[in-house]
Amino acid sequence: MSYHFKKKRKYKNTKVEKDGHKFDSKKEAARYLELALLERAGVISDLELQPVYKISTGKATDPFTGRKMAARKYTADFRYRENGKTIVEEIKSPGTAGETAYRLRRQLFVEQYGREVVFREIR
After folding, report:
1. What residues form DSSP beta bridges with 52?
2. pLDDT at 56
3. Deepest in the core among 16, 22, 105, 112, taking most CB within 10 A?
């Protein structure tokens, strides 16, 4: 006899599908619907889901193992244009906003792309 248990989600989020797109949370899906409405109204343009940014080149060598370190990427939730500026949005719950790995990725992203884009964290 085999048992199949649903894996418990760390932050108790529920995956959702809207307009054929899959989202990690209800909050992210709701924000997508808002942004899609703003795009249809002409307030924003060029809405993209899950844009990927390189935040580390992968040129460094690990001082302990001597192996080349992998390039690292950051995947945001949304990217769009508003009033001539590129906006990158990240949807976070209070539990995930303080997560150390996320804070590090956010810092590396802002250091590298902060002059080109406006980073918004939606809680």
Report:
1. 75
2. 87
3. 105
> Hey, what amino acid is at 113?
Y
End-to-end CA distance of the chain: 43
CA dihedral over 112, 71, 31, 6, signed as positive or negative: negative
Per-residue pLDDT at 102:
83
3-state SS of 68-92?
ECCCEEEECCEEEEECCEEEEEEEC
Tokens of 90: 């990240």
Please classify residue 80 by burial: count the beta carbons closer than 10 Å to its beta carbon, then call 0-12 exposed, 13-18 middle and 19+ buried: buried
Say if residues 118 and 87 touch (Cβ distance below 8 Å).
Answer: yes
Instruction: State CA 13 to chain mean position distance.
Output: 15
Q: Which residues of the chain have pLDDT under 70?
A: 1-13, 95-98
Q: How far, in Å, CA of 57 to CA of 73, rounded?
A: 9
Q: Residue 1, Cβ neighbours under 10 Å: how many?
A: 2
